[in-house]
Design goal:
By secondary structure, the protein is α/β, with parallel strands linked by helices. It has helices at residues 17-26, 48-64, 75-88, 101-107, 119-122, 125-134, 148-153, 160-175, 192-198, 209-222, 242-252, and strands at 7-11, 32-36, 69-72, 94-95, 112-117, 139-144, 180-183, 204-206, 235-238, 259-261. The strands form two sheets. It has a six-stranded parallel β-sheet, sandwiched between helices. Strands 6-5-7-8 form a four-stranded parallel β-sheet, with helices on both faces. The longest helix has 17 residues, at 48-64.
Length: 264
């Protein structure tokens, strides 16, 4: 695989753009391919088997586009599908997401950590294992967030409806003394400015986009796959309405880009 081949990234929708931004910042020479599976968002309410099937289909598409590595920019997809993808493609660099339980446990002063995540992530065996491994000395309160992904998908990052929903989700966590909040879905960093208005300044907000980008950098360097430079344009696909993704790209990605219908 040539080092100037692109990196494939996918998520259930636009949330993975928060990870894509970190990858672009840390790896400015890489060409990036992004798939938003918005026709099936949110993954958090789907069965693990469905998510595995979609992940295999999207991985196959991105490899068909010449991807040299895959990033699952979705906590739920990682929990459900990263093991099967690594089994299917044992020589392919594959980087997944996981809620930042370890750094949150280290950061908390009150000993109470809150987790905002999708139902699928919170119910996964992978998340349970993280709690067993890293959170034995702290109290972790989980909060499923139905409807929050859809707010981000619609570009409603600061609307009254999003504010009311987010306030209702975080209030129980704050009432229990939570001083550290894990943003356990890649959609959620986009509502971090709004969240900052709703929680005390002393509450630490933790997400994992930068850590994933750093891990991708390490994996590519180990295999001598880091691109030195690229002149090729990034590319974007959606399994939902392509114009809808194109409409939110300036706000979530930082600039307008053409978006193509996903053919799988």
């Amino acid at each position: 695989m040539p080092s100037n081949a692109p990196v494939g990234v996918f998520d259930s929708g636009v949330g993975g753009l928060s990870v894509l931004r970190e990858i672009r910042r840390i790896l400015p020479h890489e060409r990036l391919l992004y798939v938003a599976d918005s026709g099936h968002v949110p993954y958090g309410e789907k069965t693990p088997e469905f998510i595995r099937q979609r992940s295999q289909q999207i991985a196959g598409f991105l490899l068909g586009q010449g991807a040299k590595a895959l990033v699952l920019a979705c906590n739920t997809a990682t929990a459900a599908a990263v093991a099967s993808l690594r089994e299917s493609y044992p020589r392919l660099p594959i980087v997944g997401m996981e809620p930042a339980v370890k750094p949150a446990a280290a950061a908390t002063r009150s000993g109470v950590v809150g987790v905002l995540a999708t139902t699928g992530t919170l119910q996964s065996a992978k998340f349970a294992a993280l709690l067993d491994r890293f959170a034995s000395d702290v109290r972790v309160i989980t909060q499923p967030c139905p409807g929050l992904v859809e707010c981000v998908e619609a570009g409603e990052l600061e609307s009254p409806a999003t504010r009311a929903l987010l306030q209702a989700l975080v209030a129980p966590l704050l009432a229990e003394g939570c001083d550290t909040l894990i943003l356990g879905c890649t959609h959620y960093p986009f509502i971090k400015p709004l969240l900052r208005q709703l929680v005390p300044a002393s509450v630490t907000l933790i997400d994992t986009g930068e850590a994933v980008a750093r891990q991708l950098q390490r994996v590519l360097a180990e295999r001598d796959l880091l691109a030195e430079r690229t002149t090729a344009a990034d590319a974007f696909w959606s399994s939902g309405q392509a114009p809808a993704l194109a409409a939110v790209l300036p706000a979530l990605w930082g600039r307008a880009e053409p978006v193509f219908p996903l053919p799988v």
